[in-house]
Write a structure and sequence with these properties.
Length: about 900
Amino acid sequence: MKPMTLNRTIRLSVRELPDGRFALAGFNESDMNIPVGRLKEILFFSHFRSFLGLDATADPDAVILTPREAVEALGGGFPLVSFVGASDHDGVLLQNLMGAAEIWNSPGLPRIAGADGGELNFTDDEVTEGTKAVLENAFRELLADGGIGTDRLKDVIEFRRTETEDAAIGETLPFRIAVRLSEPEESHDEWMLETVLVNKRGGTHWTPAARKTVLHPAESLPKKWKEFADPVAAMQDRIAALLGDGEGADRMPGSFISEPLEDAQVRRFLAEDLPVLQSLGIDVIIPAWLRDAAERKVRVRATTSAGSSGTARLDDALDFNWSFSLGGEEIPAEHFRRLVEEKREFIRAGEDWFRLDAAWLARIREMMEEAERGGLTVKDLLFRDLEEELGLAADVSEDEDDDDDPLFAFSLQQSLKEAVGRIRSKEGIPSAPVPAGLHATLRPYQKDGFDWLVFMRENGFGAILADDMGLGKTVQLIAYLLHLHETEGPGHGPSLIICPTSVIGNWQRELARFAPGLPVLVHYGQSRLKDESLDDGLGRIGNGLVLTTYGTFMQDSEALSEFEWASVTLDEAQNIKNMQTKQSRAIRKLHGRQHIALTGTPVENRLAELWAIFDFIHKGYLGRFASFQEEFINPIEKDGSEPRKQKLRAKIAPFLLRRTKSDPELMLNLPDKLEENEYVPLTEEQAALYESYIRETKAGLMETEGFRRKGIILKMLSRLKQLCNHPSLFLKEPFSEPADLIIRSKKLERIIELTAEIAESGEQVLIFTQYIGMGELIRHCLSGLHGIEAPFLTGSMPKTSRDRLVEDFQNGEFPVFILSLKAGGTGLNLTGANHVLHADRWWNPAVENQATDRAYRIGQERFVHVRKFVTIGTVEEKIDRMIAEKAALSSELIQSGAWITDLTESELDDLFTIG
């Protein structure tokens, strides 16, 4: 008989698909397309894992192969066929596949040196990068099919490497070599993991007697099977090498595996070793009930009470009454403790087996011991969220159907429910007397906020006051600080407020206005107190207040962190939202007997920011950030999970007070319009330019008279107002990057911050300015920093464009509308806005009011918040004060604005001096 030779060549077109699979189309010698069904038969001629190609994917034009299918099929294809590439490109891809198939199917994988860190290493440099990639993907697919991590790739490679001619005889053995896991017998606690021989004909299991398991198979096998001792011994060693945690490590080489396992080892075997063994084709026999037992646990009921007087207080210790059952049968508490101590995970109850969650049981035991020591209080129900820690929170009635019982049932005494409910709902908070030194009348909702802050302090809680912009967070906090000053002695030390530089002036003015009797130390600027002088300054203010900025705090964080403050408050607390920055980490290390955060942004929707703020007010309350991200951020922000939202709301509710202007109950207590000044400081650059300009022009002013004098005054005022807006307007510089521009002007920085917050909250704002340059500057920064495109209406805009912009704004097409004061001051209806910002002052109240009334007019149904920006110590603040002082004069004189040019020499001298 002539030897069989290759007599057919198939040209293959090979395409690599985006998902890593390969599409193969075949052509015969006549360049005729080979039907896909016939090509599958050829490729999968000896591929039994896919049932000779029945499971393989195909489309009308090609056979689709995964990397693993490709290397297995091409390594053992049809014996009378050879493959070549249909083109040069196809040839390269085919060579990669064939090279990988040759290595994959070589006994012992001689060309693979090993696998470190989930990547293959090769013994020679002839293996192409394409071949390496195919092989690595094939092994990853093998691991993924078995649910195995890449950390086990090395074990898989070593198992494949130990293939020998003796091991290959396994196909002709009269038995299969399998691994069996057996549950403990009645009188034992240990499981048994062993290798068994399964008769291919009858399916019976054979394993040597216990005394012979330590012997080589040549001595332990039955006489009829002794000829197979070497391949059996080789396979024992190969399987033992795959077992982790030491199973099989102490056995004699070649001997049968026979290892007793504890519950924890069984769990590890099922989770880690079982998938590896199965993926390599090794039979594993486990008790069928294990698949069901994973869902069964001990049922626990905890009835909790506190306080003997019937009224639960936050510091009362909780009394627990525990009960346990398994499969409907009650378990004595001592028996439960023994289960936990023995770390049992699998136990028998009657004829049934149960798998226990050892970590969960240990947590219950820990809670029991802590409760017995009196270490759990009513307050812990909020801080620790005990219901959530222990399982499913529920109030369970005694007659409830046992079949539907949760794993953990938590029942609260009525007075305890009321104490916890009071904090969560914020209803029934005790009223605190308004401080005598408060020069303000608190609106009802502001009094509620003040009462809540006092209540939270008295019970040792931090707090987040997150009222909407314009609802008066500042006055609520000032009332609270005055309460501390009047009720706690000087020995309690001062409180600390950290705020953005752009609002420190506002805080100074509001403190002086609402709490003139509160000692305040402003820790800011080059002349601020340091070292011993700082200590002396703190001593002088007693239990007063230190006011500083985020930037200054970072410069002096080491000194300021040494004190224990009566309270620490962060204004605009979203400044610490990036928890990895030095500033955020330093602030979260501050020591205060109470930590308070003020923010007008909806922190419930900024979850990373929420975590950082809570880590400040109660460190660790929301857990590690990685865990918080996995449990809340990803499900909520990526998937919009409503159950996770509800769970998070419930968790943060006790410590967060947020009221909005849309709340109908609050609207009854708000004015229709709130006008206030927003005070901002000069930067060092602005202050230097301001003083220099005054020196240069003041002498000439004093030497002139009449109209020329008035003209110089008006020019100086205009130039100084532009300088207060931004140095680049004063210097007539072109605009640079927005991030560089805002650090040169606290006014611009604050305008951009406020505008972005308003837009993000879904509201609309009008921004008025006298200067085209300022309007363009605001547009430039809003677009570059926040992606907000804000139209700018000026006097040169055609009427059609102007009308279209007004209509679009009223329809909510864009949130921010910048207007020249002259062009937009009259004749427009812009009631879509409920915020108005005056970037610079006209110093004619009538003109400013006309501009404000673009939003505050008939048709406006919402509260309108008007802010007028005033730069501290400059002509802006001084003229604003003069207007207030001259209010007793005729309104006609004040509104004309002409009075400014008629000021006396001494008034002008004061006007043009910083301070």
